[in-house]
Design brief:
The longest helix is centred in the last third of the chain and has 22 residues. The chain is of the alpha/beta class. Strands 1-7-6-4-5 form a five-stranded mixed beta sheet. Strands 8-13-12-11 form a four-stranded mixed beta sheet, with helices on both faces. It has two domains: 171 residues, 3-Layer(aba) Sandwich (Peroxisomal Thiolase, Chain A, domain 1), CATH 3.40.47; 154 residues, 3-Layer(aba) Sandwich (Peroxisomal Thiolase, Chain A, domain 1), CATH 3.40.47. The chain is globular, with a radius of gyration of 19 Å. Helix 3 packs across helix 4 and helix 8 runs parallel beside helix 9. It has eleven helices and 13 strands. It binds acetyl coenzyme *A (ACO).
Length: 342
């Protein structure tokens, strides 16, 4: 008889740097205010790394937290999937650096999905587990953004949004008679969704340095103009985020024959409190079911989902048996969702 495997979330861990930077701190560097930032985004403070710390260091610490919680040794991992938009090096990616720091020999792949990276990594890991190829997979999302934002009036529309941090998850294989569905109470990942719209690629991006066709990786002129900083059309991002997050949730609900009220907990990417509130309202999901911690950490891109998940688990808001929906949208444009019986 054919063996059937499903993925269960064994643990979720996180790490954020100790240094807290409040909205008030930012007012000393640019014309902004606590009210402007909080009213438009929900953010009150974020964490920034100290000098000498690398993205892979944050990822390593979050990985250790997740591994300790699941009581799995790094040597027993079959695969590491890392996701970041702020890697230590242009190449190689942070996956191999985290593997080395964990002293293990599991293959380590990097997956570029920006703010949707963690949902895409969960989808990828779930496919490997369902195929029977791997049994224990570590997923890490880690970001240092404080070094690629501009603390001046020119960069204020972007720099007030982002923070540094990392989150990690251990997914384990379980042999089952029937795959988890929304109705059979079997624990594990039930459904995944991934989406992209490359026509939005330049609406939120760091375009230089790169191989976009210019003769140089980055010119002296581009360096002095700080062309390596992110560009963003905030209104376009906002509009597309609400649309795609709502569509993703609706698709997942419809194809699993669920009503919004069947979902116990929504864990959205933490980009903006207003984006997530707008989506929850359109879906008709009660406010208390939607997890938020953007107030404390800002937008930590690929790390935001596991950081939010880790805190929700530690606070007892996500418990065994609950039906959990993750949602993410970001640069690309990219979006994703996972439906999990926790
Ligand atoms: N402090 C004070 N004023 C500011 C700041 C700031 N930090 N940034 C911009 N402003 C000013 C602008 O210069 C503008 O001034 P003007 O009217 O004199 O020209 C005014 O505020 C309004 O600017 P808008 O950009 O139109 O402000 P908006 O209301 O759209 O809010 C924001 C900007 C918060 C970025 C919003 O568009 C947004 O949240 N968009 C989503 C972006 C996002 O979440 N990106 C994260 C990455 S992608 C992801 O993770 C999903």
């Amino acid at each position: 008889m054919k063996q059937i495997f499903c993925s269960t979330v064994s643990s979720v861990g996180m790490y954020v740097p100790e240094k807290i930077v409040t909205n008030e701190d930012l007012t000393k560097l640019m014309d902004t205010s606590d009210e402007w930032i909080e009213e438009r985004t929900g953010i009150k403070e974020r964490r920034f790394v100290e000098s000498g710390v690398a993205t892979s260091d944050l990822g390593h610490k979050a990985a250790i937290d997740a591994l300790n919680k699941s009581r799995i040794k790094s040597q027993d991992l079959d695969l590491i999937i890392a996701t970041t938009l702020s890697p230590d090096f242009y190449f190689p990616g942070i996956g191999v650096l985290i593997q080395n720091k964990l002293s293990c020999d599991a293959p380590a792949i990097d997956l570029r999905g920006q703010c949707s990276g963690f949902t895409w990594a969960m989808t990828t890991a779930d496919s490997f587990i369902r195929s029977g190829q791997y049994k224990k997979i570590l997923i890490v999302g880690a970001e240092i953004q404080s070094r690629v934002i501009e603390f001046s009036n020119r960069g204020r529309n972007v720099s007030v949004l982002f923070g540094d941090g990392a989150g990690a998850m251990v997914l384990q294989s379980r042999e089952v008679e029937h795959l988890p569905t929304a109705t059979n109470n079997e624990r594990g990942i039930i459904d995944n969704l991934m989406g992209s719209d490359g026509s939005g690629a330049e609406i939120l991006a760091i375009k230089r340095p790169g191989m976009s066709g210019e003769d140089e990786f980055i010119t002296t002129e581009e360096t002095s103009e700080k062309a390596y900083l992110p560009i963003m059309d905030g209104r376009q991002v906002f509009k597309n985020a609400v649309r795609r997050l709502f569509e993703s949730a609706t698709t997942i609900l419809e194809r699993n024959k669920l009503k919004a009220s069947d979902i116990d907990v929504v864990i959205p990417h933490q980009a903006n409190l207003r984006i997530n509130s707008a989506v929850a309202e359109k879906l008709g999901i009660e406010k208390h079911k939607v997890m938020h911690n953007i107030q404390k950490y800002g937008n930590t891109t690929s790390a935001s989902l596991p950081i939010c998940m880790s805190e929700a688990c530690d606070e007892g808001k996500v418990k065994k048996g609950m039906l959990v929906l993750t949602l993410a949208f970001g640069s690309g444009f990219s979006w994703g969702a996972n439906l999990i019986r926790w």
